[in-house]
Design brief:
Blueprint (H helix, E strand, L loop, with lengths): L1 H28 L11 E2 L4 E8 L4 E9 L5 E8 L4 E5 L2 E2 L4 E8 L7 E11 L6 E11 L2
Length: 142
């Protein structure tokens, strides 16, 4: 009786191991990307300062975005913190290429002193799926 129970347990364990091996093999061959086949976002800076600016001067800056990965980098969204900031960006940057994200503030007539405007960016880079870009300026009367 004990021998029968031991054999049953061994058969059950062998079946579990076989299922686990088949599942692992199936996941590898199902076309899922390996880590090496991912996009890799690289930027020199996530912030730009215009310094002292005369009120009424439009602000416009393009952040350079490089894809050092092996797959296409998708910029899914660029969401400014307020309605005064507009965006324009490359939605797809192929492997090895450089694109851009432009933030612009057209109407600055009523701005005084230091201002900070931000935009949240969402991408398909697993290591940098969300980040914030920042524009700074110090508005003067002169």
């Amino acid at each position: 009786m004990k021998l029968k129970a031991t054999i049953s347990v061994l058969i059950l364990m062998a079946a579990v191991l076989a299922i686990a091996a088949i599942t692992k093999s199936s996941a590898k061959s199902s076309g899922k990307s390996s880590e090496a086949d991912q996009p890799k976002l690289v930027m020199d800076s996530f912030e730009h300062s215009f310094g002292a600016v005369k009120a009424g001067t439009p602000l416009n800056f393009t952040f350079k975005v490089k894809n050092d990965g092996k797959a296409a980098l998708e910029i899914k969204s660029v969401s400014p913190s307020c309605g005064c900031t507009t965006t324009n960006f490359d939605k797809v940057i192929t492997a090895g290429k450089t694109g851009g994200i432009t933030l612009a503030i057209e109407h600055t007539e009523n701005y005084k002193g230091e201002i900070i405007k931000t935009a949240e960016v969402t991408t398909n880079d697993p290591d940098r799926s969300k980040f914030t870009l920042t524009l700074r300026a110090n508005f003067t009367d002169k």
